[in-house]
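#lab-general

N.A. 3:47 PM
ok so I finally got the sequence cleaned up, no stray characters, all 126 residues accounted for. can someone with queue access submit it? mine expired

B.Y. 3:52 PM
send it over

N.A. 3:53 PM
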Amino acid sequence: MNFPSELKYTKDHEWIRIEGDIATVGITDFAQSELGDIVFVEIETEGEELDKEEVFGSVEAVKTVSDLFMPISGEIMEFNSSLESAPEVVNQDPYGEGWMIKIRISDASELDALLDVETYKSEAGV
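B.Y. 4:20 PM
back already:
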């Protein structure tokens, strides 16, 4: 499994890439493999300000539906609209074309609570 070291992670299997005050969020390679074939990504929170650990959407796979949790507080600036017609991209490229949302970070101090790759692998048991 692939876990890029430049990313931060959550215990809920989301990854986050920080670029200035904008963060890109998706689910990890482990999460997509556990879910199986993803058939639908639902995110209706674009433009909303959400707190850390609030649900920002859901992923539907053949065998289950799973909530998506905010890794940090912020405003959802953008949803990866290409996932509406091609949700399987999350399975194929979870850290690239399979990204889900972009957030304007509202509390940078929350970044300190995110996991680095080694801590994520250890705590997530992957």
